Amino acid sequence: MHSSPSGRTRLLQLALSLFMLIFVALAHAQDGAKLTGTVIDGQGKGVGNALVTVKGGGVTRTARADANGAYSVDGLPAGTYVVVADASSFSTATTGGVKLAAGQSEQLEPLTLSVASVAEQITVNSGIESIAAETAPSGGFVEERSAQSLISDTYVENFTSPIADYGEIVQIVPGTFTLSSDGIGLGQSKTYFRGFPDGDFDIDFDGVPFYDTNSPTHHSWAFFPSQWIGGVDFDRSPGSASTIGPTPFGGSIHLLSKPMGNEQDIRGTASYGTWNTKLFDGAYNSGSFGLFGGPKKSNLFVDIHHMTSDGYQTFNYNTRNGGSLLYQYSFSPRTVLTAFSGVIWLDANTYGLNPTRCQTLGLPTGGTYTCTGANSAFIGAGYKFMMTNNSDPVNWLDYQYNNYHVPTDFEYVGLRSELGHGWYLETKPYTYNYDNAELFTNATPITEATTVNGSNTYNGVKIAPCNIQVVKRGVSALPCGVDKYNSYRKYGETSVLSQTSSVGVFRGGLWYEWARTDRHQYPSDPLNHWTDQALPNFAEQFWTNSYQPYAEYEYHATPKLNITAGTKFAAYAFNVLHHADNGKTVGNLCGLGQTTGCPTTVTDTGTFKAWLPSLDFNYRIHPNFSIYAQAATGSIVPPSNVYDFNHTPSAAVPTPGLLTPPKQQKSTTYQIGTVMKLQRFTLDADAYRVRFQNSYSSVIDPTTSETVNFLQPSSVTQGVEFETTAVLARGLNLYLNATAANAFYVGKLNAGTLASPYPVRAPGGLWVQQTPADTEMQGITYQSRGMDLGFFNKRVGEQRVDAGAYHNQAIISPFSTANAYVNYTVRNHSIFDQTKIRISGNNLLDQHNITALTLAGTSTANLIPGTTYVDPFNQTTTISGSDNPTFIPGRSFILSVTFGFAPNERK
């Protein structure tokens, strides 16, 4: 009977306690201070949805600005605060020393946000509420001035293979496709888009251009694995005047480093997959910390990994060790230092020869080609044939005679400072190194001789230069290996000075780079400790200087219209030292019957210069809907082989400095586009037309023995492309993109300035090779409560193949690959936050379509000097068993388990 009154008493006491607690809280709230203000852009326009953070005295408060940029933060205890405003596509604005008394209400001066640099524009669509835009794997932003796709960090983390390189990551971009013959991330991949092959576009990392000095191509597996990449900004145009690099010709792929979090995090990953592929990775994010007990101004991200794989191709083993370090230090809210260092150590057994159609596909069922002589070895060994026939180990072209050793390193230090009155200065000195030491056999696989007679012939035919397995049987032969070396070290810097005002944004800057390169190829004997012959195929050192000063102005004509105009001066200087060789490149440097006292080296120099103007505009029809147009020019630094020359000893040796340098390749791009970001739907679409000059051909002047290089006929590529994301249900998105395009030759080689031996070609109307008529990608993703599921299918349309000077000699049929990804991540804010299980499946349907083709010959006779030749339209060459096809790597899976550890737990 007494329990009930006691229960009522406890209930009354509880209610009274709650009432007193609420009263005290309200009383403190009434005493709390209040901050109000606005966030504006350089035009004085409010930045809607900007995030405002108020920090001080152990208190942190956040608020979102409204559509006009106004914000309010209340309930602040007395103290001194720092106020930070942030919005995507803008740099952070900070004001400090804000003192508040109890109950005070303070109106701050407007916080002005300036437009961020490219590396800072990782998120998109400032001030726009769009679920579709936030969850899109790839898409543009409403402020863009050309066709761009920003690939999110979420896509890289969840919807690509853990061993992927950047070539695999950018395949999602409209019109883009990447070819890799040994499996994703297990070999040198090449990326194509809009009719441009690798070498016709820039790639940079955090704004630092990187490319090979031999030609402006890239080494996808020796630099920047996916573990280092936090997103990609892909601009499918020459960009504006401030777009720097050796080839602002077709476009720019801007790789971005990992975003640095504010919380400490440790992650270890173990992966295992098809072809005995193993990956072990460790990553550490320090979060904000202080040096020697000082203020928390530092942040550090470290990643190390070890990867091994047998590869898709037989006996093409891969080993890669890598590590990166990213450090950031804030001297003040206005000045930030960033430093990066990345090192890769790569070893592989890539073979020096490509497998033939006979070796991979075997005899045809229709009898269109035969496999005899050299082509009869290893008939039908399969798609993954590389260098061996497993059924006959005696005939192995031994992988131990093919070694590819490549260490690289890449470093930069960047300093960004706000100087006041809207002025910003950013400078970034850098250096990087590529060191490729390669040994490979140049052996030709043949059928085993019936008898071994001690000669270097087989069935009466001389073996040239030799064959490993025949040598093993006691047959003498010539050296058949190649000792290949390519090494360069670069030093450079990028700098930009910008000023944001209510009228617009000025940008001026400079890119400068110096490089030294050492290259050679020596015929070598792999069976005699790799003894080199006296004379090389080539041996050279060269030095290059590149510099690009630029200036542009982004004029804010109205609150909705921005117009940007500018120009850059692209200059490139080349100085080469050739050593005498065996005739493959420059010859023995004797002339006019001279046999003694021949020079051992010859030098040559050249300079290429070009003004590259650009003009574009962006008009905001609505805050979430814009249109843009662009006219821009681009150029390409020439490959080093434009300075190769050869001659006969009966001719005069070319005098240093007299080699005729070719004209520089240039392009002109026109495009229009639109960007729309609705709540549950996004659309990015554009149409483009690009006229560009093709790569070089050369002939030797019979009178002067001088090598004359000239540009091949010009081409026009034009098309339309789009990408879209639609939210189908909560967490369920549909992603689509497609292109329809053509690229055809329109130019004619003018022989007016050349002597009669030079051929004239007029292949107008013929397609540019490796330019698909269309591409499509379909993707569907589901992301909810730590589960990330994705399916993506990429289709590449019909392509044409050239054979030397002859265009459209073969056709590559359409092909597609389907990939699927399953990820589960622990996101419970516990000590094991970010622990993850990840399954990646590539080429699920196990397709083996031909993706590239090198033809053994043509169906037309060679060009006759002094005559005019018009290429036949759509004429195909006869299929040969000696053709070298490239196939889609077979189906593969990889399972990854990431162990996350957040020492302080996530709040």
Question: What features would you describe in this structure?
Answer:
The protein is mainly β. The protein has two domains: 15-113, Immunoglobulins (Immunoglobulin-like, Sandwich); 265-351 and 397-443 and 480-901, TonB-dependent receptor, beta-barrel domain (Maltoporin, Chain A), CATH 2.40.170. The protein is 6% helix and 48% strand. It has six helices and 50 strands. It is globular. Residues 1-5, 18-30, 116-127, 388-396, 445-477, 749-763 and 859-874 have low confidence and may be disordered.
Name of the top-level CATH class of the largest domain: Mainly Beta
As for the CATH topology of the largest domain, it is Maltoporin, Chain A
| 3D shape | globular
**Which structural class matches the secondary elements?**
mainly beta
Q: Which stretches are poorly predicted, pLDDT < 50 over at least 5 residues? A: 1-5, 18-30, 116-127, 388-396, 445-477, 749-763, 859-874
CATH H-level homologous superfamily name of the largest domain: TonB-dependent receptor, beta-barrel domain
User: Percent helix among the residues?
Assistant: under 10%
Largest sheet: 22 strands, antiparallel, barrel
Radius of gyration: 31 Å
Count the beta strands. 50
**Amino- and carboxy-terminal Cα gap:** 48 Å
CATH 2nd-level architecture of the largest domain: Beta Barrel
Strand content: over 45%
What does the average pLDDT come to? 80
Q: What is the number of helical segments per DSSP (H or I, 4+ residues)?
A: 6
The total domain count is 2
Key features of this structure:
907 residues; mainly beta; Immunoglobulin-like; 2 domains; 6% helix; globular
